[in-house]
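> call design_seq(struct)
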């Protein structure tokens, strides 16, 4: 079982987002990302995590690491510059 609380606590937000985006071919919708960070106690690490999340998503889009078609039902997907975060390759937090 993956320890998401530890992942959110120990990793930076951008890397966790890259992990979430890369889990499925169809990507992940923004509301699901927001709910994920709300569920796993991000507010303990970031005072205003919602604002940080918006800025982080924008930075990742500008860097070409994620992209969104911006149409209903589409999510954020791997961009041309997407790279798997180190904690995934190291198989931390119970990631298989």
């Amino acid at each position: 079982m993956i320890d998401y609380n530890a992942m959110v606590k120990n990793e930076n937000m951008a890397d966790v987002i890259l992990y979430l985006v890369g889990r499925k071919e169809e990507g992940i919708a923004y509301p699901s990302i927001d709910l994920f960070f709300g569920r796993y106690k991000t507010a303990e690490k970031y005072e205003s995590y919602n604002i940080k999340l918006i800025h982080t998503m924008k930075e990742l889009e500008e860097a070409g690491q994620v992209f969104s078609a911006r149409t209903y039902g589409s999510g954020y997907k791997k961009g041309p510059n997407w790279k798997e975060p180190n904690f995934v390759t190291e198989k931390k937090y119970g990631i298989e």
